[in-house]
Amino acid sequence: MKQVSLALSVILAGLTITVVSCDSEKPFGSAAKTGPAATAPVATAPAPVSEVALMSVVGSPGQADNDEGVNQYKQGHMDVATDRFQKALKSDPKLAEAQYNLGLSFDKMGKHDEATAAFKQAVALAPANPAIKDSPILKKHLGA
């Protein structure tokens, strides 16, 4: 009987830790708030989803340039990112990820005709790639 009791204690302790750790996502001190702000939650719009540039296939001749372009894209350096994606495509013209990323960069730069052309080429290179074909920004450019 002691073994069963000990086992239950260990299980309950584990559940308590799990419940407490799940609760730790709440901001510290939120239960102590009083006043109107505490009783009426403020509705906020969800943050817009940003399109994510895609890393290339390992072993591609354009991998290093594409992946550096992704880093530049993340930092908001669209001119440098575009140059790197174009360089990756010179090394590997069938690198769909670089073609897609080029479209993203062109879109961010306001070069929508170039973005549309890049997105068309990306879909032609990888028609079954869900990260490419299901992209909302690609669909917007291609009218899909």
Here the CATH topology of the domain at 63-142 equals Serine Threonine Protein Phosphatase 5, Tetratricopeptide repeat
**What order do the helices and strands follow?**
HHHHHHHH
Radius of gyration: 24 Å
Q: Roughly what fraction of the amino acids lie in strands? A: under 5%
Q: Can you tell me the CATH architecture of the domain at 63-142?
A: Alpha Horseshoe
Query: How many helical stretches?
Result: 8
In terms of per-residue confidence, which ranges show pLDDT below 50 for 5 or more consecutive residues?
A: 4-49
Outline the fold blueprint.
Layout: H1 2-23, H2 36-39, H3 63-74, H4 78-91, H5 96-108, H6 112-125, H7 130-133, H8 136-142
